[in-house]
Amino acid sequence: MTGLFTPDAVATTLERVRAATPLVHNITNIVAANSTANALLALGASPAMVDAEEEVEPFAAIAAALVVNIGTVTAPQAAAIARATRAARAAGTPWILDPVAVGALAFRARVALDSLAHAPRAIRGNASEILALAHLHGGNAAPPPAGRGVDSLETAEQALSAARGLARATGACVVISGATDHITDGRRVATVANGHPMMTRVTGLGCTATALAGACLAVEPDAMAACAHAMVLIGLAGERAARHAAGPGSLQVGLLDQLHHLTRHAVTHEARIAIIAD
Amino acid sequence: MTGLFTPDAVATTLERVRAATPLVHNITNIVAANSTANALLALGASPAMVDAEEEVEPFAAIAAALVVNIGTVTAPQAAAIARATRAARAAGTPWILDPVAVGALAFRARVALDSLAHAPRAIRGNASEILALAHLHGGNAAPPPAGRGVDSLETAEQALSAARGLARATGACVVISGATDHITDGRRVATVANGHPMMTRVTGLGCTATALAGACLAVEPDAMAACAHAMVLIGLAGERAARHAAGPGSLQVGLLDQLHHLTRHAVTHEARIAIIAD
Amino acid sequence: MTGLFTPDAVATTLERVRAATPLVHNITNIVAANSTANALLALGASPAMVDAEEEVEPFAAIAAALVVNIGTVTAPQAAAIARATRAARAAGTPWILDPVAVGALAFRARVALDSLAHAPRAIRGNASEILALAHLHGGNAAPPPAGRGVDSLETAEQALSAARGLARATGACVVISGATDHITDGRRVATVANGHPMMTRVTGLGCTATALAGACLAVEPDAMAACAHAMVLIGLAGERAARHAAGPGSLQVGLLDQLHHLTRHAVTHEARIAIIAD
């Protein structure tokens, strides 16, 4: 299985996305809606942001993947998430959860936990979010210091044990974003070391990583490989953009340019992906 | 009448927008709200995004034009659209409909069809959307393959016959966006060949075209001319931006810069507008 | 007290924001959500956009500052604003109101006026918005010509008298944005002359100024100084960006780059801040 966690495999997933232009259904927040749609287009996928309760069921069923992000969740959107995730599961549409700031607020914690009953294929968050979700799923209170919104006060390494447990308990692959990303299905662990520190100064890049993982889930049946590949693709686009960026504004723009131009050659030479437990 | 479909007439509309800075009322989606507001400002208009049910009636009445986009329509926004379009018609405010992904989802199809009763001055979509709306308005099911969200699987040419019928049935000018845009009032047909293929990799540029058409409707009483002029202006800004853009991120930014700097000279020398049926 | 209104004091506030990375809770509009989050990150703060009625009370209590912007207010968001501002007051979280287009529409006027009962630390608007809010707060109708959305048809100077009255009546510091910004607590008046005319062609920069003022309120207890410092910081970033910008699209991007790179040296040499009444 380790052949899935190689630069070559990442390049193949990129080519599959471009060939299939998968329709990616996003239920997302008002901050990242534009930038994630643009990132999906730049990668080669076909994004659609649909979150009306009246529309999500049929759309999740026809989509190639569903991305659920609770960054600005409201009660109507929570109802839509419940319907969409149930419909995705019934239709066999792979879906991924981004539990933004889940440890800070009880309402979104409830939304995230309820959604786990509908069998997400993957979950992506920073270390604080994954730690909080794992604790909540285990019936415990989220650990402090979860009150810092989307900032992660833990390192990815510290959260890895919690992530493995969450993956085993839910059946979802779990991604912990950080300077080095960790991706686990509960048994295997892969790491991705692409990216650039300035990416933390651009809003919504975590949400974008989740959305790209949705596109990869549409073409790669091994969810852990799909997620790891997506983390390489956004990290690589970000580090290439950072070489020319004058600051975080330019980085946000350049990342889209780089995603659009990523080649098999660039991916195979610059991907930093490894499997550390198999 | 053909004098309306000339590069000179486009330049005159641009100058009128800049002189009048028309207040353009937008009821739009969460993806394109920022980019369409910026495009209206860059063109020289004054955008306002107002979609609360409590606010749309007085605002549609004082606005110079109303733009209705159903890209992320919800039940409350649908109620606001019903109120706003009725108020616009009563006040004589010209309004334009962007039936985003109308063929894919029954809820938004209902919202779009209901709005047609309030006499839009124009409708702009891609070929799939116009085909779907025409079929739905005729009492038929939307044709497959409408399930691809905002992607257009048809060419503008194929949808022209449906567009002419829709225009005659509704009294609205109909714009079919594509590599070559087609604009018809049911009798006349104009084409616009400005634009660049990379524009399809930037989210919300269809929505932006509709918003710019709203600004032009505020200053040009011939709706078909107003729409054709708007398609030239966005296409020209896009193709000029594409000369310098490193990818779709840069293109989105450069398009705003170019809209801001468009001159009569550039428009008269580079507009590719023609009338093919009069 | 005049030492607070010096380039040195602005640089100190900037350094304090970067050292504290204050969590800034935003209840804002769909147009400016992305750009204000990015501006807060570029400055060095930690933004979170949270506007669900179920979430705003605990979040306003743990945040270092709250920013309330009524640009696309709806009934559910109005309910959230009422809860959040009450909770902020109770918790001692400083909060700032951006009364976008308050003179044009009765619904948002009611929302803005009701919020004033919860003791905002500051209010920022253009001259038309401040004039309208002052009139409404005094029990009068908003003056014409308030019907132009976010455009300001008055000059900051004309609105100063109304702003002083509003500040005295509410206890909030009042900022009138314009070519020269005026900031008053009812007694003192400061001016900030940084900025660039092209900033008026970028959507949401007023909203961004308000959000940055929120970040400064989190670290500077003198609300009038915090607001004046924020106006310097955004104005300076904007004028530095304008030197290299090809148009309003580039300006929006460059402003974020410049915010990220602002130094004590740049601020102390280029801030144009003065106190004109003490």
Automatic annotation (TrEMBL), chains A, B, C:
Keywords: ATP-binding, Kinase, Magnesium, Metal-binding, Nucleotide-binding, Thiamine biosynthesis, Transferase. It catalyses: 5-(2-hydroxyethyl)-4-methylthiazole + ATP = 4-methyl-5-(2-phosphooxyethyl)-thiazole + ADP + H(+). Substrate binds at residues 49, 204. Its cofactor is Mg(2+). ATP binds at residues 124, 177. One of its GO terms (biological process) is thiamine diphosphate biosynthetic process. It holds the Pfam family HK. GO terms for molecular function: ATP binding; hydroxyethylthiazole kinase activity; magnesium ion binding. SUPFAM superfamilies: Ribokinase-like. Coiled coil: none annotated. It is an enzyme of class 2 (transferase). Catalyzes the phosphorylation of the hydroxyl group of 4-methyl-5-beta-hydroxyethylthiazole (THZ). Belongs to the Thz kinase family. This is Hydroxyethylthiazole kinase. It comes from Gluconacetobacter sacchari. The gene is thiM.
